Here is the input.
Amino acid sequence: MNKKIAIVLPIIVIAIVMAILTFGKKTNSDAPYKTASGLVFGTSYNITYQSNEDYEADIKAVLDSVDLSLSPFNKNSIITAVNENKNVEVDAYFTEVFNLAKKVHAETEGAFDITVAPLVNIWGFGFKEGHFPTDEEVDSLKSIVGFDKVRLVGKKVVKDDPRIMLDCSAIAKGFAVDKVGEMLKRHGVENFLVEIGGEIVAAGCNSKGKDWSIGVTKPVDDSLSVNSEMQMIIALSNCALATSGNYRNYYIKDGKKYAHTINPKTGRPAESNLLSATVVTNTCAEADAYATGLMTLGREKSLDILKKHKEIKYILIFDSNSVTRCDISKGLKQPDGTPLTVK
Here is the structure.
């Protein structure tokens, strides 16, 4: 892929494999741990897995397939053809992501919306060149944004207005992580960590027989992506994690910060005291979408919605009178096995 699925390089969560010399799980074989890394979707990927076989070619094939289905930066992708109103049938990947996006859209009360693409583009954060828009331009584009204006009929996308465009950037990267993990499982791999630009699926244990350790970056404004200071480190196994934040992809105009998360209801960059949202759940695609939706909603509304979804664990980092604070759900733990708590 020559260009990225998302302008932002959301290296908000950094996967780090840590050797912790305490009692832990034992690996299920004597096979070595292998690594595969590279660039994809405009960011990096790092994959560690235990196997006697080399699956680097299989990993690349999965990533290429997701790119060809869902990347609006790929001129030959299915989503590009949909956005250009070509007569195209969508594939299984597109269908799965579209249906999951629709589900999360409903569960976040419209905060997560893949039809927000025209607004993301005009604000300069999308797959087309943008500019600082006028109020009239924003209000005009809001009329073609909304999941109720687009649907799948068989293998065809049907739009109420041909100007409607889709952007799956906030879910496709997590989806790719899931698909690589599924491929490894089909090959019988039980212990692996798949990370693409900070979105993660962790299964089994690391080479020391411990849960995988994941560092959550401290959310400070960092447009050059050079900050690596950790807010906290958590232990993960057999689950997925994604983080969204507004401190890497933004610009300043007339002294005001404009970040990449666009509120589909207002048509403007979301404004709240929420600095980052980390979601831990069963699939990375769902975690990816929820993290974006929560950033759009803000802290208070996010907590209201999360109360209804006990299966979702979370870390919300927010600003309280210029002091960084955290909301942490029960069930997350530190690498030493103790509960992750607010300190």
Confidence is low (pLDDT under 50) at residues 1-27. Helices lie at 56-70, 78-83, 92-107, 117-122, 135-142, 169-186, 284-297, 299-306. The CA atoms of residues 217 and 230 lie 4 Å apart. The radius of gyration is 20 Å.
